[in-house]
Amino acid sequence: MLDLVIATRENTEKLGYFVDDTVVNPGLGIPYYKTVIEGANYEHADWKDQACVRTSQIHWRDDHNVSWLERHLEMTQAFIVIGKNPGLFVLGEPTHDREDLEEKQRALPDPNRVKAYIIPAGMGLILKKGTWHDFPVSCGPPLSAFIINTEEVVEALATMPQAAPMNHGDCYKLRLSEQWDFTLRFPDPRPFIQKHGLAPQPFPVPLMGQEGYGAGMHREEVAAGWAKGKKVVVVPVVNVEVFVPGSRGPAIQPHLQSTPEVANRGWRDYGNTRGLKRLVEMFKELGLPATAVINSEAVKDEDVAKVLKGSGWEFGAHGLNNSSGASHMSRQEEEAYFKQTLDDLQETLGSRPQTWLTPGFSVTERTPEIAAKAGIQALLDFVDDDVPFYLKHEEAGRTLCLPYCMETNDFSCVLAKQLDARQYAQTIEDHVRQLAKEEGEKVVCLGMHTFVAGTPARVLALTETLQRLRELPGVAFATAAQAPRRRFGACGVFQRARRGARKCCEGLRT
Questions:
Q1: Model pTM?
Q2: Angle, CA 150 vertex, CA 145 and CA 153 arms, to 5°
Q3: What is the pLDDT of residues 254-311, one digit of tens each?
Q4: 372 by DSSP, 3-state: which?
Q5: Which domain, by its residues, includes 388?
Q6: In which element (H, E) is residue 477 found?
Q7: What does DSSP say about strands 78-82 and 124-127: parallel, antiparallel, or unpaired?
Q8: Are residues 71 and 160 in the same domain?
């Protein structure tokens, strides 16, 4: 992933000549200019006496891969950002005159010296000869640029029916996939330009669509009465996770970061070796349903897969592992990510999940749409309400959103607020009891992790709390797939009998 930086005179010195509202080369000295500081010509700027001056408007693209880089050794090229919007420029330092490189290496960019520069509106860069560059990229809103290069380059590009490598005259263009076995990518620039105040206000391309639920997604309320007389539907969600070896993750003692780091990693691994079984037994003892959201790589462990198959839980998907998410993926990569996760879980566990929680909430603006197209019926990626609602897309259809409660999540309570086992369990009980006193129908997704909620002290406290909530009037327990589309028994609990899923009582139907 390329670094994303704001272009300045200092950090672009090896790439070109920075253009802003400051005259840094005064000296032309036209005698009769009394109120003008006239700059001299840029000594090394050279357009081979055939400059081509044009403007270009560049629109947003979903693909953040850098597929091409080119350079010119006989002339310079200039990009001036006009209008109100910044632009992203992928630039690499010249290599043709590097004495530390072999001859073949001088014909390639140095990936260690390539960065993604954000050039603010009203500024620009005159590239030095040999600077590697891609065409400018929109940072969200349309980018308008004033471009100076040569007729030779423009004609060469205009005569090509499709993009292809070039070595014609002063046009030297490489397809990077033919040179390297890795892909250069730049981060989504929109959060960066918002953070640094470089975007016009209001931001013309919302990161998560007009309503905040993803591009093209529209919220639709679930009709009243979905809970069939219940006040609160509790959905226990158990996260079954694995982390890529060597990568960091949640820590019970964050100061332990030596290499290799065995304490916090071992604590996380404990969840799948012991905590998972403990939580399964707890829910069986209480006769309560649960939804497991599972990293597909977790069930490569035969013991984990065996415990899950015997749990009676609903199986939901939680990406491949918890060290990677979708936030830096292209649309194609994210679609493939969904498919691989769902395919792998179906192959291992025997059923295709219809519930989805993105690891680390690392969503993109496309995640809800892709989830709906992938057949996800219950999406847990949003946390902004106490009621379920539908997210509808014109092409993808709709999916049910069950808000994933952050206030009752074990990470929030234990790792962030450092509540002890009893305080954690009491927080859950207080949360549900208060909702049961309020008007309307509510849903609570209780997020639990096998290595946090699955420890002995917390399971003991949770058992007592959930037992009390099970008996609380107006409270029902359900899996994500059961709420709010299915039916609750008179006691508000789903139970699994020997011959399959059988409700403890006949009763309410949606």
A1: 0.70
A2: 90
A3: 888 777 878 889 999 999 999 999 999 999 999 999 999 999 999 999 999 999 999 9
A4: helix
A5: 217-245+261-503
A6: strand 475-477
A7: antiparallel
A8: yes
